[in-house]
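User: Hey, quick favor. My workstation is busy. Could you predict this chain's structure for me?
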Amino acid sequence: QVQLVESGGGMVQAGESLRLSCAGSGRPLSGFVMGWFRQAPGKEREFVAGTWTPASTNYADSVKGRFAISRDNYNNAVYLQMNSLKLEDTGVYYCVAKLRSDTAFRSWGQGTQVTVFS
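Assistant: No problem, here it is.
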């Protein structure tokens, strides 16, 4: 297990950008598959982005071309750069981690709220 703390959420106008940060502690994040999930009001939690290596990333179709996940092993952190934000991007964003051998993400942060308004 690893402890994860998100930051960087806030309220932004549609079309603007935000950068979420996820700080890890307890173990190096370099040994984990990292990702971001989000949950909009009244909806189920959904996958947003994931990364194992800089060359190995994947995204939900709804954010492809707008969001970018990256990791900073030196600072034991993971980031989610969100550009061209839309109203439907509103939700609580969670940083997640799993070992490559795990079938599911076992470590979750507490979440950070992102609100996009028109």
